[in-house]
Every structure is written in structure tokens, then in C-alpha cells.
Amino acid sequence: MSDNKIGLKSISELLGMNFFIPSYQRGYRWDKQQVEDLLNDIYSFAIKKKESEKEFYCLQPIVVRKISEDDEVEKKLNNLHSELDNNEWYEVIDGQQRLTTIKILISYLVKELYSGKSLYETHKKHPFEIEYETRKDSRSFLNNIDFSKSNEDIDFYYISEAYDTITKWFNSSNIEDPQQAKETIRNTILYGVKNQRQEGIVQIIWYEINDSNISPIDTFIRINMGKIPLTNAELIKALFLQERNFGTNEDIAKLRQIEIANEWDKMEYSLQNEDFWWFLNKGKNDIPARIEFLFEIIYNLERPIEEKDKQKFDNQFGTDKYKIFRYFNVLFADKNITFEKIEKEWNNIKDYYSAFEEWFNRPIWYHYIGFLISSGVSVIDIYKIYKDKKKDEFETELINEIKKRLDVKYLKIIDENEKENFKIDLSYDNKSKEKIRQLFLLFNIEFIVKQYHKMMIENDNKEDDLFIMKFPFKIFKNENWDIEHIDSFTTNPINDKNTAIEWLESAEVDFEDEITDELKNRIYSFKKGTDNFKDFSLLQDDIKKIADEDDNDEMIKNSIGNLTLLNIGTNRSYGNSLFRTKRRIIIEKEKEGTFIPICTKYVFLKYFDKKGTSRTKWTYENDIPNYENHIVEYLKGANDKFITFKANSNE
């Protein structure tokens, strides 16, 4: 088992240490902008008003490996040992550019502030040393930067340029008092936790690899190929698996490490299930280790709601991508940490995972939570409901949350034959498009839920041997969805010849037996002739008569009973086609593997037509009211489950 160390170190703690930059790394190459960015960040932090005496500014990780006595690198360093008080060396695998820049900054500050005295004379600490394998004089050059040698070596050139940038930055017009600025930055980088000043301190994330099975070169390549940084998950995993966490019994420690490592891998493997992952996330959320999602949830739940407290929280842990690691690092900061505390924190993480797994595996919860997440409700807000309610109350709370978010009412309409119909108090326009999209998503989901209820009743409430359909949130979230008008003649006329020809050719396929020879000749003449859209309009009218489809007014076209949910690709593939053509294309698309929402498919298969009228046309008299009645019946349920009755139009 590895004993990789992870934690925070102040720059002050690095003083007196020795760092070796191996030849597989490139030399020092930071430019003016990068050096100035670092100075600006440190200075802005140092002068800002502190909410806490323990505030710090954190640099990105330094990844190192301690060089052992029998190491090949040790032989390269033998000539240095005699002149240094500390003979311990660390091979720097990542972060050498930042480390070298801090070294240059310290050299500048010592020269400017201590009037010829050394750092040891003033702070009782030596600067940290850096030795580049490819430059035998690099250590001495960094300790005494000589501009006359800057052209002798490309690394010396960039180091000299960085020193010059630092000098100019302190003397720039942006700095009102250069001397005070030097002292301010000196205080924040040279003082540590024990003697911290009001400026706060600069720290780094220290990641020390002590696993002999890990190759430093492989680690370097992994981190730097494509600039892949260490993730919060990797850093937090190292916190949990440090051997000091598990007591002094080596055998028990290894068993406990293996237990946590195996559970970690199991959770990560499960979260790699695309259906599970897309159920929990509203959109694309590509993170290298998906278990980090759990840590992010925990972090955000711990973050205070009140703005004042939230600011203190952010000051303590930062706002960059490593804030989550720093939060967990505080939990492990106690040197006397026990396995019981580790186990408590680990069990907390497992509890979150178990909750999400339960959501995914319970069919009704899966569908209602999936709807809420798809509609923009955060997993955090759903978890807050979950943890505060008993399980038999949770479903009711989910329904209430959906109802509140949807906020749709329905009406009862009595026709001239005293027949009762339902109408949803919502009509298609740009403002209501998203609400209608949610309405139809919920209709598809509730249709599946009701099927599940029916199957459970028929199977004596046992899920064994039941095929339980799940709405595919992964597919749904990866595609763009339109509100489709079922009535073939929308308000968008065909105005180019290619589209007109496509429309006519589709009609020829779908009405082959009904189209007369005379009509076929006219279609042929239009396709080969001029762009006379008056001829096309007449052809459309004649084919529409064959199809026996009514020309509905705009209000009917935009009513809920004439709308359905369809992905943009399928919707645009048939444009203004007749119902029979749309029906054929829907069936073909599904055969090809395109996801068609179940209620959309049933609309075109005329599933909601109780009277069994024509399967090849869509009419105002029967289909539109029947379909809208079904939508209302499913969504209102027995007691206005998702939509609410509106007594009259004046309410």
C-alpha cells in the first residue's frame, strides 16, 4: 500500500529544503505575464481585509518524491551534500515553474530588505535550494542572479527576465509605496502559521509520492500531457489512504486501507454508468473522477447560506478549483487523527452515494427526481428534502415540488352536446415554450409511472421478474427537443422549390394509391418546370383533399392537444408534412434506433383514439380533444396531482 502524503505547506515550511529538477522536465520558462499574475494575486490577498486570522492564499499543487539514499538521483547530488546543512532532497515532478518563481522572489526580497544580510541572519532559516539536472550552476545562479550570464544559457535568461519583471513590478505606477509592498509580500510568504502576520500566509498543496511502484516520469507525463492537473478526487483519496490514519498495527492498517480503496473504486465504477450519471446531472459534467461529484455535493451543502457567513467560508477555503480539497484537508489536519474520525467521514460520503443509488433504483423516485433535475432543480435541493423526510413522505414532497415548479392549471369545457372535455390553460408561444416542454416531459414520465403502478398491482406489489421501463434521461439531455405541431399545416409556409419537391415526393409515397395519373403528371411538371409556387399551392390543396385533413385555425394549431415532444433532428426531417407522412417517418426513425418519447409515438400510432377512427389523419373533432383529455387525466390524477383545476377563465 502507498503512503503518499497530501496536505498544505506554507512557503515558510519550504525554507531550508532542497529540490531537484530532473532532466525530463523543460527548463524555467515563465514569461512576464505569468510572473506578474502571481505577484498581483499574492499582493491582492495580502492587503485585503481579513475575516479571519488564519486566512491563506493557496498555490496549485507541488508534486514531489523524496530521494532515498539508494536512488540513482542520489548519486548525481553527492557533490552538493558537503556544502548544505540539510542533505535531504526532493525530486520535483510537477510545479517547478511556480517553485522557481517563488525562489526568485525570495532572492529579490532578501536583497532589497535586509541590507546585505542573509535570510538565515534575519529568519534563522536558509532559502530553499533548487538544482536543475541540466544546468550544473543553476543553484548558485538562483542564489545570486548575475545578469551578465543571462545570455549564456536559456534557463538563466528566463530566470533573469523574471527577476527583472519582479523589480519593475514593485516600481510600477500601480504600487503607491514600493517599500511597503515589499514588506507586505515578504510577510505573507516568509512567515508561517506559528508567526503569521496580518497579511496572512501563502501556502501550497503538497503532494508527496512515496509509492515505489509509481514512476516519477510516468507521473510527470500524465500530469503534463494535455496539461491534466491533479484532481480534487486524487488529492482527497490520498488524504483518506495515508497510513498514519489507521493506527500502528501494520496488518490492520493495510486491511482498512484496502477496504476504503475498494469501496472508493466501487462508487467510481458505479458513477461511470452513463444512465446513473446523466440521471444525476442536468447537462454535460465531464470530470476525470466522477466520485468528485460526491465531494462537491458535500462541500456545497456545508457552505453557509447567509452571505456574510458564505464570505468567511470562501476566505477559509478559497474559490478556485482546489477549494474542495482544502475543505477536506482541514478535516484531516489534526496530527492525532484517529481511524474512528476517518471512518466517520468516509461513512458520511458513503451515505450520500447510497442515497443517490436509492434514488436511481426506485422507479418512481427515479422518474420524479429525474424530471426535477432536468428542469433545473439541483441535486443539493433534492437531497435537503430527502434527508428531512421519512421515505414514505419523500414521494409526496417530490410531487409537491413538481407541481409547484410546473404551475399549470386546467379547465372543464362543456360542448354543445353537453360532453365534458378538459383544456390546459396554456397555449404555444415563445414565452410558454419551456413550460410546455416541461409539461410534455412530465406527461411521458407519468405515463411510464402509471404503467409501473399497474404492473405492480398485477404482480402483487413484487418487482421480481418485472421489466421496468425507465425514461432515458441520458438520451433526452444529450439532444435538443422541439414542441412539434401534430397538425400538418403549420404557420410556416414552404417557400423554396427543393423543400416543395421533397414535400410532394413524400406525398406520392404515402398516397400512392389515391393520387390520380392527372395529379402525378402535374407533380412531374412542377418538379421539372419553373418555380411557380401558385402551381405548388394548388397541388398542396388537391393532395390535402385526398388526405382529408382540415385546415385548422391558429388557435387550434397552438392548443396543447395539437402539440407533442420531438427531437429537433426528427422534427426538421419532415417539416410541414401531412400526418400520414409524419406517422411513417416516426415509425422509420424508431426502427433505426432514434429515441421517440413514448407518448409522442403513441400520438402518431393513434393510441389515444378511443373510437378507433382513421389511423392516417389527425382531426380537430376527435383527435385533438381526446389527446388533450388524456394529458389532463394523466397529470391531474385523482386529486389534482400535478396540475390544478381552474374554476373559470377569470380566476
Can you offer a commentary on this structure?
The protein folds into 3 domains: 5-228, no CATH class; 231-361, no CATH class; 412-489 and 549-645, no CATH class. Helix content is 53%, strand content 10%. It contains 29 helices and 11 strands. It has helices at residues 11-14, 32-47, 72-81, 96-113, 119-123, 138-143, 154-170, 178-190, 216-224, 232-241, 250-271, 274-280, 292-302, 307-317, 323-331, 339-361, 363-374, 379-388, 391-406, 433-458, 473-478, 497-510, 517-528, 533-547, 554-557, 568-574, 579-591, 598-604, 623-636, and strands at residues 5-10, 18-21, 56-66, 89-94, 129-132, 201-208, 409-414, 420-424, 481-485, 563-567, 644-645. It has a 6-stranded mixed β-sheet, sandwiched between helices. It has a 3-stranded mixed β-sheet with strand order 8-7-11. A two-stranded antiparallel ribbon has the order 9-10.
Kindly state the number of beta strands: 11
Per DSSP, the total helix count is 29
Question: Mind summarizing the main beta sheet?
Answer: 6 strands, mixed
User: Low-confidence parts lasting 5 or more residues at pLDDT below 50?
Assistant: none
Give the topology.
Layout: E1 5-10, H1 11-14, E2 18-21, H2 32-47, E3 56-66, H3 72-81, E4 89-94, H4 96-113, H5 119-123, E5 129-132, H6 138-143, H7 154-170, H8 178-190, E6 201-208, H9 216-224, H10 232-241, H11 250-271, H12 274-280, H13 292-302, H14 307-317, H15 323-331, H16 339-361, H17 363-374, H18 379-388, H19 391-406, E7 409-414, E8 420-424, H20 433-458, H21 473-478, E9 481-485, H22 497-510, H23 517-528, H24 533-547, H25 554-557, E10 563-567, H26 568-574, H27 579-591, H28 598-604, H29 623-636, E11 644-645
Parallel strand pairs: 2-4, 2-5, 3-6, 7-11
Antiparallel strand pairs: 1-6, 3-4, 7-8, 9-10
